[in-house]
Write a structure and sequence with these properties.
By secondary structure, the chain is an alpha+beta fold. The protein has 4 domains: 156 residues, Beta Polymerase, domain 2; 69 residues, Hydrophobic Seed Protein; 116 residues, no CATH class; 46 residues, no CATH class. The chain contains 21 helices and 14 strands. The N and C termini lie far apart (90 Å).
Amino acid sequence: MRSRADQLVVPQPIRTLADRVQHAGGRAWIVGGGVRDHLMGRPFKDWDVEVHGLPADRLEPLLRRLGIVNAVGRSFGVFKLRPHGVGPSEPEIDVSIPRRDSNSGPGHRGIEVVGDPYMSIEEAVQRRDLTINALMVDLLTLEIIDPSGGLDDLRAGRLRAVDAHSFLDDPLRALRVVQFIARLGFTPDAELQQLCLHAPLEELPAERVQAEWEKLLVRGTHIAPAFAFARDTTVLTRVFPEAPDLPERDLAIARCAPARDRLDGLGRRWALLLTVWLAGSPPGAVEHTLDRLWLHKLAGFPVRKTVLGLVAHLEDPTESDADLRHLSVHAELELALHARAALHPDRDYSDALTRASALGVLHRKPRPLLQGRDLKRLGIRPGPHMGPLLAEAYRLQLDGTLQTSEAAQEWAASRESS
């Protein structure tokens, strides 16, 4: 099927790249998810350009005349281009020649890639995972090339493999199907469901699992059907054997999406969704799942520590101000209360959120009113007795008994004199 992407606005650096490629005897195409998202009316920033008719050793010097080039896969013709005048905050342009994949061993790392700039369009498309990701746009004419029927599948909201025989050469594609369900709300066809059911998932590297699960949990808007598909195809139990496999939990995770989208920071969004998913699991199971995702810190945010604290204290009381102060020591209250609201939709936690904000403990625990230097000023000799005294003062502060630094110091002085 042929049509045109007349509304596609191609940035000037990419138009220049296409002109230079044509002048050198090649042809440049937009490929991958950018074409799909454009046709769905979704914004996108990542441009993936495939160049036909130029070998890598001729393409690379052409690109270097246009900007800074990172040859991430020189041996098979994969480059990242930052055009002159484009700032570091803007995404690079992915530029590659057509390539074919072959499965030379188990798992994702067993895939060998060979570049071939002269292969046909039909063969180049065969390496794509899904038909909706196999669409190509000629950068000179804006003509859409659709060898695998991706346009029909886009209109039907259907996920379908480009090639059933090669789909499982990369077992990570089973997880990609799950996250595409979550992000697009599309329905896999019966053949694709069977392929995912038989995907060899045991040796997937943790960093790749994390990347796909992030798209599901942190970006997904159709989370419940994605989890249902992962369960029906046993993807869930094979990738995360110690995580809860509870159908009723799917809706709780989905209920988190509005709160998730209001949170600042990728790490905090991860923490909220993981807490709802892993609620009720023993600490060992939570740690094993976090290991499978290779999650520790993200941009300085302690995802692992936060999730472990949240899951361990999900049942702590929140009725009184003292309850909220005590809970804030173990878990970030904004995340804890949003997680509880998702898990218990029949309960209203809005008042607790308001009170936590007014108390100044929504995102952090209270700063101790009494510290070691205060004890020294009071003439209390340093020693091991200081620790229990400070801990008791902090407990009284959380209870609300001590409310000012002066009151805490008076309490410490009276304790010491007695």
